[in-house]
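Board notes (copied after class):
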Amino acid sequence: FRHPGKIALFLGFFPQIMEGPISSYAQTADTLFEGNPLTMENLAQGSVRIFWGLFKKLLIADRLYLLVDVIFNNYQYHYGEMIVIVAIAYTTQLYMEFSGCMDIIIGSGKMFGVTLPENFRQPFFSKSAAEFWRRWHISLSSWFKEYVYIPLGGNRCKIAKQIRNILVVWMLTGIWHGAN
């Protein structure tokens, strides 16, 4: 039986509660409950990670959004190369937005001595689509695998059920990200 106060502390750990990365109780609980004092090393490492995240979010993603928004809202006036450039800019913007936010959250946790799981591992350097997916949004993928895909039978069942399992995970991933 787990202590209700400890469960509440885990569920309320502010750096990860809003956007992730999704971590299991086993990944962060012990560190949270130790109540270690703030250290200069953790404050410095956390601050560097936060500043890097702010750089990606505010100076790259938010600037690319301005270009993407103008072109996508007036796409009928643009052709060829500009659409390709903006599609690449949009992909970069999404990555910098989410990766920057994860850096800010992981850095916040680090300041308090809590190590949160990584959520992105250079997905654009992947050699395949499967590897890309494993490197992008790692904690969400792991959560769906552990709590949805495997309990449905994962890939240890007939092909039709495997496809069903994948489609269920994809549908839930879409719902997670919102209808828009």
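Comment from the instructor: Helices lie at 4-11, 14-17, 25-34, 40-73, 81-111, 129-135, 138-149, 159-177. The mean pLDDT is 87.
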